[in-house]
């Protein structure tokens, strides 16, 4: 069993605080030693120190310079080096995992993002949102007034959201899809192989993967569009309650709670376990679902640990390329898997409120 919510949050705060302070102290010690090396060694002319050499050194001046240097370095370290970062234990209402970054919706409606920033995908704008979706190298969110705002990469116009009001948005690889107030789907971005050409009619939800999108029709059926090299856009018949498009496969939740997946199965990502789930999310070569008791179970590739879910219960989960983030019952977020860009470490989040 995992630690109780409040205890777990306090432990994370303590860990973050200690790690940040330790990092500052180690950096400070290293800088002081470097200053001492730079000052003393040249004075000694790199000769083995003798009593005469040591006595000839201007120790008074060296002491003053070292004290001044330590004071300046200490001031810089403690004002410019953050605590790993910010003693932040985020309280979120939703979380979304992208390729190498993640974003969440704070309880106050602002967006927090962490991970890769090379395209600005983890630098959310200020203001309030009702939902957020992290994609390849961009992120999109639905404002409280129904408009969509995107940030990050726009090389394929995937962040160039249309005007109008929408109820949801889903950021894919280099494209984005959304649902209008009338339930119709609209997509923009990379136009190759039908990525931004949704079928007509109304949907209850849409989910954009790396190169394809699937939508849940209002009658419970699923329709997909975009790349179909691995049959990831060829859904089975039947009634479903939700759908999640991954990289080269798709998973969906049937109305009886069982999960069905289709598309690539090179790593077992399309072979879900039996039993009932309340939600499912597809990643690159793995997928995860929340059981009826709130625990998480994953299947598929285990490289980097994205399918190695922690103990305890979750309200929601979101799989990315090689990492997963989940929302705990106490509104804190926990991530696991690949973390080369910090996408699995929400302590380093950038807040849209500017905090």
Overview of this protein structure:
19% of the residues lie in helices and 34% in strands. By secondary structure, the chain is an alpha+beta fold. It folds into two domains: 5-80; 92-351, Methylamine Dehydrogenase, Chain H. The protein has a four-stranded antiparallel β-sheet with strand order 1-2-3-22, with no helix packed on it. It has a three-stranded antiparallel β-sheet with strand order 4-5-6, with no helix packed on it. Strand 2 (101-106) and strand 3 (111-115) form a beta hairpin. Helix 1 (5-43) packs antiparallel against helix 3.
CATH class of the largest domain: Mainly Beta
What do we call the CATH topology of the largest domain? Methylamine Dehydrogenase, Chain H
Query: Using only CA atoms, what is the Rg?
Result: 25 Å
Number of helices: 3
**What is the H/E string?**
HHHEEEEEEEEEEEEEEEEEEEEEE
Pairing-aware structural class of the strands and helices?
Answer: alpha+beta
Which strand order does the major sheet show? Answer: 1-2-3-22
Known CATH architecture of the largest domain: 7 Propeller
- In helices, the fraction of residues equals 10-25%
The major beta sheet can be summarized as: 4 strands, antiparallel
Shape: elongated
| Distance N to C terminus | 33 Å
- Beta content comes to 25-35%
Total strands: 22
In CATH terms, the superfamily of the largest domain is Regulator of chromosome condensation 1/beta-lactamase-inhibitor protein II
Mean pLDDT: 85
Give unreliable regions as ranges: 1-21, 79-87
How many domains? The number is: 2
């Amino acid at each position: 069993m995992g630690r109780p919510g409040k205890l777990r949050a306090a432990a994370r705060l303590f860990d973050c605080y200690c790690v940040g302070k330790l990092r500052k102290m180690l950096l400070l010690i290293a800088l002081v030693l470097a200053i001492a090396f730079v000052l003393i060694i040249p004075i000694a002319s790199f000769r083995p120190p003798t009593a005469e050499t040591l006595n000839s050194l201007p120790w008074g001046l060296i002491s003053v310079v070292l004290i001044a240097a330590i004071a300046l370095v200490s001031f810089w370290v403690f004002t410019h080096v953050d605590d790993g970062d910010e003693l932040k234990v985020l309280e979120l209402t939703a979380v979304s995992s992208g390729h190498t970054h993640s974003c969440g919706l704070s309880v106050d409606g602002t967006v927090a993002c962490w991970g890769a920033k090379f395209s600005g995908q983890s630098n959310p704008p200020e203001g309030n949102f009702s939902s957020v979706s992290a994609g390849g190298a961009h992120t999109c969110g639905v404002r409280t007034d129904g408009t969509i705002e995107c940030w990050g990469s726009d090389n394929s116009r995937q962040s160039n959201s249309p005007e109008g009001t929408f109820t949801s948005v889903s950021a894919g690889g280099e494209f984005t899809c959304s649902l209008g107030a009338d339930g119709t789907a609209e997509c923009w971005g990379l136009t190759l192989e039908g990525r931004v050409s949704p079928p007509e009619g109304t949907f209850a939800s849409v989910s954009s993967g790396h190169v394809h999108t699937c939508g849940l029709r209002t009658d419970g059926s699923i329709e997909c569009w975009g790349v179909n090299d691995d049959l990831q856009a060829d859904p089975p018949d039947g009634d479903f309650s939700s759908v999640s498009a991954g990289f080269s496969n798709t998973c969906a939740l049937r109305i009886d709670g069982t999960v069905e997946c289709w598309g690539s199965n090179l790593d077992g990502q399309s072979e879900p376990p039996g039993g009932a789930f309340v939600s499912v999310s597809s990643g690159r070569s793995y997928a995860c679902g929340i059981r009826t008791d709130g625990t998480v179970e994953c299947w598929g590739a285990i490289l980097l640990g994205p399918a190695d879910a922690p103990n305890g219960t979750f309200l929601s989960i979101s799989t990315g390329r090689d990492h997963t983030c989940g929302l705990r019952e106490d509104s804190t977020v926990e991530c696991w898997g690949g973390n080369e860009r910090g996408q699995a470490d929400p302590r380093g989040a950038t807040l849209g409120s500017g905090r």
